[in-house]
Amino acid sequence: MAADKVRFGVIGTGGMGSGHCRTIPSIPETELTAICDINPDTRAALSEKHGVPAFATHTELLDSGLVDAVTIATPHYFHPPIAIEAFSKGIHVLSEKPLAVTVSAVDAMIAAARASGLKFGVMYQMRGEPQNQAARKIVESGVLGDVYRTSLVMAWYRSQAYYNSGGWRATWIGEGGGVLINQAPHYLDLFSWLGGLPTSITAQTRTRLHNIEVEDEAFATLEYANGAHGYLYASTTEMPNNNKLEVCGDKGKLILDNGDIKLYTLDGSLRDFTQTCESMWGSPTVTETPVDVKVQAEDEIKGHAAITRNFARSILFGEELIAPGYDGINAVELINGMILSSKTGKTVSVPVDRAAYDHILEELKATSISKGEVKEQRITDPNFV
């Protein structure tokens, strides 16, 4: 490894992986030195485009001596074994989301990362956005007081053509879930990053709009250790897209609404006011408090590239990780908890029972059937930044 560059390999060069192949060369601290894909035509084309060697298997890439770190952008089930092998060979790992399909698999990734002493990151690029950084500082400051309610609505849209673009998509055996495992992890990460993990989940999942075997809609009520409650909703069945996250406390309320951030503070404790106010129609004074959100320059590295740069700088200079891999388990706890609750019809505890979830997932995988209609497309999300 050069003193000022981290040599990256990208494993899996579909829609997301090909996007990483484009961004890595643009980052001052990184260089793209190898790629891996099971599709010979894809890897040949990208090898020629980027001028780097291409490998048919991740093991060949890991053994090549060409990389200091890898970005894993394969289908979800392959993240853990690739990461564990990389750690065993002294290679840092930055994994696409979600870290894994099951919490038990994430446990294994975390154990391998800790044993190796290497850097471990997850591609939660939304953590780096200025409004989300500001939200995190607000929560950590304690200005909201004791949190009593959380809420997340993540209502997106995907066409049937999207689900037909790969044989692995939207199947239990190929992807391990639907909207929860694919689209929702970014917001589930923000939700747990700001509001913490609940202690129990009561959920329903269903397939409302698409011809797929996994869920395109999921909703849950949550309970927290301090008695707070929460609500979660995620879907790929709505237009226009809508993202709204709330954290409500005894002294204030934080709202992230489609990229906008608002903070409302009370002139004291809501609980105290409720007990001491003598006016029948009295209510506490509420102030919309300005939030200091860092303005990003036009030429500033953003999104996925910002997480990759931070990861490289953590390797080179010890910079604190924005999205450490160890945090990636939280979204998977919520995903597994919601699916387990839905399939059993019961409230489930968090941390999720690993054996119970692994068992039910194996039952669901056994019901998977080959897709009758697949029109292969490897196109990066147009919103990839």
What is the CATH homology-level superfamily of the largest domain? Dihydrodipicolinate Reductase, domain 2
Please list the strands of the largest sheet in the order they lie side by side: 14-13-12-11-7-10-9-8-15
The biggest sheet amounts to: 9 strands, mixed
Strand content: 15-25%
Question: What is the CATH topology classification name of the largest domain?
Answer: Dihydrodipicolinate Reductase, domain 2
Helix content: 25-40%
Q: What is the 3D shape?
A: globular
pLDDT under 50 segments (min length 5)?
A: none
Number of helical runs? 13
Termini separation comes to 26 Å
How does CATH name the architecture of the largest domain?
2-Layer Sandwich
Structural class: alpha/beta
Short description:
The protein has about 375 residues and is α/β, with parallel strands linked by helices. Helix content is about 35%, strand content about 25%. The strands form two sheets. The chain has a nine-stranded mixed sheet.
SSE topology:
Elements: E1 6-11, H1 15-23, E2 30-36, H2 40-50, E3 54-55, H3 58-62, E4 69-72, H4 79-88, E5 92-95, H5 103-116, E6 120-122, H6 130-141, E7 147-157, H7 160-163, H8 179-182, H9 185-195, E8 200-206, E9 217-223, E10 229-235, E11 237-249, E12 252-257, E13 260-266, H10 270-276, E14 286-289, H11 303-317, H12 329-344, E15 348-349, H13 354-366
Parallel strand pairs: 1-2, 1-4, 2-3, 4-5, 5-6, 7-10
Antiparallel strand pairs: 7-11, 8-9, 8-15, 9-10, 11-12, 12-13, 13-14
